Amino acid sequence: MMIGLVTAALLLLVWYPPPLFHAAGADTLVLLLVSVDLGLGPLLTLVVFKSGKRGLKFDLSVIALAQAIALVYGLSVVLRARPVFIATAVDRLVVVTADELDPADLAKASKPEFRHLSWTGPVLVGTRIPSDWRERNTVLFSSTAGKDIEEYPQYYVDYAQAAPKLLERAKPLDALPARGEAQRQLIAAALAKLGKHEADVVWVPMVARRANLVMLLDRHSGNPLKALRINPWAH
Predict the structure, then answer these.
(1) Number of helices and strands (H, E) in the chain?
(2) Dist. CA 203–CA 166, nearest whole Å
(3) Mean pLDDT of 213-220
(4) Are residues 100 and 192 in the same domain?
(5) Would you tell me how many other CB atoms lie within 10 Å of the CB of residue 130?
(6) Mean pLDDT, to the nearest integer, of 92-104?
(7) Domain of residue 126, residue span
(8) Which three-class secondary structure string do you get for 27-59?
(9) What is the DSSP letter of 12?
(10) Contact 70, 36 (CB under 8 A)
């Protein structure tokens, strides 16, 4: 029970902080994990259980071991898919997961702190366009195969260095698409909690594995304020 509570706390508060739990697909992974693990034990117990059966303790021990193996494997999948960086990419922020980064690329990271996968939640970073034309072409061509600039840690920079360019692409809140009543209430609640006026806040899309979000930014500093479960490209 305690292991389950600690694991749930790490998932919800550290590895997949809201609203990334849904956007990065952790809810689906955890549901599958729980379904398999909880279903495996009772089902196999039902198959082998017979009161007074010789070797029943051994059978139940094997089932418990199978459950433990399934749990460990499931958690390893969840950990490999955890967000480790949130990187700028021209006009948006992109959630980068552990399994999207090649260890060889990670070893080339521009700063020591970008050379390891975070265990305490995603690290906010900026990216820079390579100055060398051959490197630019490499990144350009690799993007057509699905590997974009945010998956190259050698081009990571401190977020503050990239924030001004991201701010140039950011949009005012009244430019959000499909702004219905529920969305207005969500924005109003976020602004009230942040203690900000609408004129002081802009937004950029934030792209994750399963869903796209809206990240609110301080209009003056570019610092991220809050991610909202709003589709930035809704019609």
Answers:
(1) 8, 8
(2) 10
(3) 95
(4) yes
(5) 17
(6) 94
(7) 83-228
(8) HHHHHHHHHHHHHHHHHHHHHHCCCCCCCHHHH
(9) I
(10) yes
Same domain, 88 and 74: no
Q: Whole-angstrom Cα distance, residue 91 to residue 181?
A: 26
Q: Considering the domain boundaries, does residue 195 fall inside one? A: yes
Contact (CB, 8 A) for 193 and 211: no
pLDDT (mean) for 152-167: 95
Beta carbons of 11 and 78 less than 8 angstroms apart? yes
Number of domains in the chain: 2
- Answer yes or no: is pLDDT of 1 > 50: no
Residue 235 falls within a domain, yes or no? no
Mean pLDDT for 32-54 is: 63
Distance CA 161, CA 27 (A): 33
233 found inside a domain: no
pLDDT at 36: 61
Q: Look up residue 224 and give its two tokens.
A: 């991220």
- Domain stop point among 80, 114, 135: 80
Give the global pTM: 0.83
Mark 35-46 as b/e (b = at least 16 C-beta within 10 Å).
Answer: eebeebbeebee
The residue from 36, 64, 80 where one domain ends is 80
pLDDT of residue 141: 87
Name the helix (H) or strand (E) containing 26.
helix 26-48
Q: Is 47 exposed, middle or buried (0-12, 13-18, 19+ CB in 10 A)?
A: exposed
Shared domain for 64 and 119, answered yes or no, is no
**Together in a domain, 178 and 211:** yes
Q: Residue 8: is its pLDDT beyond 90? A: no
> Please, what's the b/e burial string for 65-89 (b: 16 or more CB within 10 A of its CB; e: otherwise)?
eebeebbeebbeebeebbbbbbbbb
